[in-house]
Amino acid sequence: MSSPNAEHPLKVMIVDDHPPMRMGLIALINSHPRMSVIAEAADGEEAFEVYEDVLPDIVLMDLRMPGMGGAEATLAIRKRYPDAKIVVISTYDWDEDIHRALQSGAASYILKDMPIEDIAETVEAVYKGEATLPTTVAKRLAERERREPITDREREVLEALVKGRSNKEIARDLSISDETVKSHFKTLFAKLQVRDRTEAAISAIRHGIIHIDE
Amino acid sequence: MSSPNAEHPLKVMIVDDHPPMRMGLIALINSHPRMSVIAEAADGEEAFEVYEDVLPDIVLMDLRMPGMGGAEATLAIRKRYPDAKIVVISTYDWDEDIHRALQSGAASYILKDMPIEDIAETVEAVYKGEATLPTTVAKRLAERERREPITDREREVLEALVKGRSNKEIARDLSISDETVKSHFKTLFAKLQVRDRTEAAISAIRHGIIHIDE
DNA sequence: CTGCCTCTCACCCATTTGGGGGAAATCTTA
DNA sequence: TAAGATTTCCCCCAAATGGGTGAGAGGCAG
């Protein structure tokens, strides 16, 4: 594999659901001497299809998108192409988002408020196999490690909570007794270091454990 | 005032805290034959300062920014320059955000998931004095009208709630009795059409009444 | 097979929250 | 100034939530 140059630039694919952001990322990459955008997609499914078509050297992928998000798309692509290099770019530095993206096989996680030079640099660095994570992002990830891991069941309870359900309703939804729901909340309060359900809901949203909207 | 043409293009100013988005909006406007970006800013305060310096024909302004947001910046600019034409562009179509932006004097409110052609079109239309609001946005705004207006005090209570405070703590914070807090919640539940405080908190966030983060 | 973890459920009891009234004080504005 | 909205507070009572403790069933890893 020869290193990219003016004749054989690094082939980049852009994935983002916002047209102007897509335009900016394309302009950013194309203005770099050794990189060139060869494809774009507006959501996760399209990203997977287009990836197979064009087989880019690297993907610059948004995280939050309608339908299939960036983490799922990363997982899908790397399942078929384990060497795929994907840089996730997001608005938020929420620890669960970061964790999910990296778990899914993203090589890096960067933020949209970074200077465009840093974004381009990360893309090139990742292509070269240099693992880079911005300090802000790494710090958030470290914070997450310090938090006790939340189990699948607990996540389901949180999800129902954020939908506005009462203990009884959550119990019905999950086919368990409401005493069990209370029990889950007790452990959740401890893990999230909060005192009541409202705080728990907000905390879950702020950490990206549960996604509002859609 | 002569109409913009290739020699005298419409002078546009771009305000957004995300460098790649700024780059995209600039590229978008500059690729239009009758428009040209003459200045940019990364937050509300900078927007005001730069506006005074360059006096653009129109501003394309992001809503959510660290420090002074787009609505406050719009208000500040139009206080000094009542004829300033400002198009707010946002990720979210939350009714309170839309309302605040238009209340602040924005001429239109558009979304970042719109096609770039529509964005450019809106900017030009607004300059010509044609008021345009995307149907999605107009619909959200209409929904808001159907909701009973929330008072300032109630908003403060909601804000404290989203911070995770209990009734007693909210009472202490606002120097009122906790019976009064309960009273405010009673009316809030009715206005937001929810049954408990957790739902109220989520609803307040989803409508953009209270902003999480920062 | 034996811990360890998760999920499940139960009981008790204190506190918090929510729903029904009503009412005085203040502030706005027609 | 009088109507109207807002903010403040009160009472009562029912329902929901939260904290402590304990414990059985099932799964998974060493």
From TrEMBL, chains A, B:
Entry keyword Signal: no
GO molecular function: DNA binding
Name of protein: Response regulator transcription factor
A Gene Ontology BP annotation from the UniProt entry: regulation of DNA-templated transcription
Protein keywords: DNA-binding, Phosphoprotein
Domain HTH luxR-type: 143-208
Pfam families: GerE (PF00196), Response_reg (PF00072)
Species this chain originates from: Pelagicoccus mobilis
Gene3D superfamilies in the record: 3.40.50.2300
Keyword presence, DNA-binding: yes
Limits of the Response regulatory domain: 11-127
Sequence positions bearing 4-aspartylphosphate: D62
